[in-house]
Amino acid sequence: MGRKVKKWYVEIDMKKLLILISALGLLVPLVSLAAEFYSGDQYLLPKGASVNSNLYIAGGTLNIEGNINGDLTAAGGNVNVNGNVAKSAMLAGGTINISGNVGDSLRVAGGEVTIAGQVKGDVLAAGGRVKILPGAVIGGDLLLAGGDIQNQGVVHGTVKQYTRKPGENHAGGLLGVIGFWWVMKTLMGIVLAFLVWYFFGPWVSQVVHAAETNFGKEILRGLLGLIGIPILVVVAFVTIIGIPIGVIGLLLYIVTIVVSSAVAAILLGRYVSLWYKKGESHISWQTIVIGVLLYQILKIIPFIGWLVVAVVFLATFGSIISAPYRRFFP
């Protein structure tokens, strides 16, 4: 009786796995309907043109002359926003100029930041040089941090200003950009891990348990899968009949990598929890948050951090791709 119950439990989890893969596979086209993405050397939204969704862009020189009827997230060497943004804007880059209007909050970090337009919400601006020009109007609070700060605009909320002391270097702007995007990546990682855990908790527990109990084997499986699956996909694309299989295989491969990153953070948090509590412990929201934070911190630590992240990721990846094997040979 116990063996039948075990098979039934694994079978249900495999169905959840298929649902997870299908849902994440549909995520890209669904998100594309609500947002536009662009990356490249240069980007131009011409004057008179408009984007009726959120816009995410990255590149060398970004020029926004038209209007965006949603949020704007941009990162580049030179970022110029002369058009209007209906909602919030998050910008990072070397030189950032904002002369258009922002309908909600503005978050900006760069080497040199200039704001000349109207912002209805709060503004957080950090950089080596930050200038709020005459004619700029901030509807909410203003927080400025940088080496050379000039505030000549109108602020309807409170103003807080942090200026670098004389003699200090100009690394603050670069550190601000790096810190800004690290925080954003960490927040997105926490959200993704919570979503995977919330909808597929039992399956995640099985994957984590398998990675814990067969750590070495799962690392080997993960390494073989990470290298072997792309080779099989390329082989499938060579033949006309195999193209659909190749497309499906490539999609599953990408989705599995994304899910593996989220579950790898949970696995890392699980190890910390076991070490801290000196025994068995269940996966909780604290486990997820600690795991994602540690996972992101290790990513920026050269060599040792990268090695730990790679090993944990491979173990998780191997555990996920070996799930069908555990289904048929429990």
Pick out its properties.
alpha/beta; disordered N terminus; 2 domains; 3-stranded parallel β-sheet; 26% strand; 52% helix; 330 residues; globular
Briefly, what is this?
This protein is α/β, with parallel strands linked by helices. The chain is built from seven helices and 13 strands.
User: Tally of extended strands?
Assistant: 13
Taking the alpha carbons of the first and last residues, their distance comes to 14 Å
Question: Spatial order of the strands in the main sheet?
Answer: 1-3-5-6-7-9-11-13
Helix-strand string: HEEEEEEEEEEEEEHHHHHH
Which residue ranges are poorly predicted, with pLDDT under 50 across at least 5 consecutive positions? 1-17, 25-33
Structural class: alpha/beta
Main sheet specs: 8 strands, parallel
Radius of gyration: 24 Å
Fold blueprint:
Layout: H1 2-34, E1 35-45, E2 50-51, E3 54-64, E4 67-68, E5 72-81, E6 89-98, E7 106-115, E8 118-119, E9 123-132, E10 137-138, E11 142-151, E12 154-155, E13 159-163, H2 172-213, H3 215-238, H4 243-277, H5 285-299, H6 304-321, H7 323-328
Parallel strand pairs: 1-3, 2-4, 3-5, 5-6, 6-7, 7-9, 8-10, 9-11, 10-12, 11-13
Helix pairs in contact: 1-2, 2-3, 2-4, 2-5, 2-6, 3-4, 3-6, 4-5, 4-6, 5-6
